[in-house]
Write a structure and sequence with these properties.
This protein is an alpha+beta fold. It is 49% helix and 14% strand.
Length: 162
């Protein structure tokens, strides 16, 4: 078991209900037909590869892929040891556009395994550059599909690590 990254697409009304403490992300995940995705432990490698920062907390498109925006944190989940953040519909569209432009060549060009290991990025193992890249790549393309669908449906997104 480890710290896994998870995403759920939600309507504006559902996001507001979660922000107000009137809905729970875990209950929303149980809704039939709900768009939910898990990027396992690849979230930190992905974030570092796109931003060059450990736990990058910026607000431009590359930071929105694995969003850890302090002003958009759902504090009530932190009491349970869960870091949860939300994105607006506009931010989802930015993240989707950013990922739409990523292919394997661009991803590989930004992937610096030595930097990941040197910065103790979660999930990166010394001596496992090819394996770590393949592992992360799979989840980047899974997440690209998730964001594309959420953007097309004009949804907001909630991301959490637990």
């Amino acid at each position: 078991m480890g710290m896994c990254g998870n995403y759920i697409s939600v309507t504006n009304e559902e996001l507001k209900a979660v922000q107000d403490g009137k809905a729970d992300i875990f209950e929303l995940c149980k809704t039939e037909g709900r768009s939910v995705t898990d990027i396992d432990k690849a979230w930190d490698m992905m974030s570092f590869t796109f931003t060059g920062e450990h736990f990058g907390m910026g607000n431009s498109a590359e930071y929105l892929v694995v969003p850890m925006i302090i002003d958009q944190m759902l504090d009530e989940y932190s009491e349970e040891g869960i870091n949860a953040y939300w994105l607006t519909q506009a931010q989802v569209k930015e993240a989707s556009a950013f990922l739409a432009d990523i292919d394997e060549v661009k991803l590989k060009a930004n992937f610096d395994h030595d930097e990941l290991v040197a910065n103790e990025v979660y999930g990166a193992g010394d001596g496992y550059a090819e394996e770590d890249f393949s592992y992360m790549k799979e989840y980047v393309f899974t997440l690209r599909d998730f964001y594309k669908k959420a953007a097309e449906e004009n949804k907001a997104v909630i991301f959490w690590i637990c």
